[in-house]
């Protein structure tokens, strides 16, 4: 019985230490405010979401988190024709033009560092790539895995 009590005391002591260490976290939480985001270069396409910059220089997106996908998919500018099609660009939350990003790096799907769990629709076209993403004032991630998504069926 004494051995069990000492073991229990040791476990409780370790648990309390772990709680104390986790409370003293030196990394601040990432603040991602939900707001109106201007997603077109001419300032006419506005949509709600979390502001995210992709590429160098940043192309602005309104990120709308999904619980059904593991990967971050971004719409292709070709789906809207051009970035001046503001109703299309706004409806998609922004579009990505890979030719305008100096940090865009395309990858073979089997060598890409994103998740292989997502399924591909038979009517879509996908480009797996890595690029810089900016959470505006909240930090930058280099080489973030993304999927350039295009709808082939209109």
Which helices and strands appear, and what pairs or packs with what?
Layout: H1 2-23, E1 34-38, E2 46-54, E3 59-63, E4 72-75, H2 86-92, E5 105-106, E6 124-134, E7 140-151
Parallel strand pairs: 4-7
Antiparallel strand pairs: 1-2, 2-3, 2-6, 5-6, 6-7
Explain what this protein looks like in three dimensions.
This protein has 154 residues and is of the alpha+beta class. It has two helices and seven strands; from the N terminus they run H-E-E-E-E-H-E-E-E. The protein has helices spanning 2-23, 86-92; strands at 34-38, 46-54, 59-63, 72-75, 105-106, 124-134, 140-151. Strands 1, 2, 3, 4, 5, 6 and 7 form a seven-stranded mixed β-sheet that branches. The radius of gyration is 22 Å and the shape is globular.
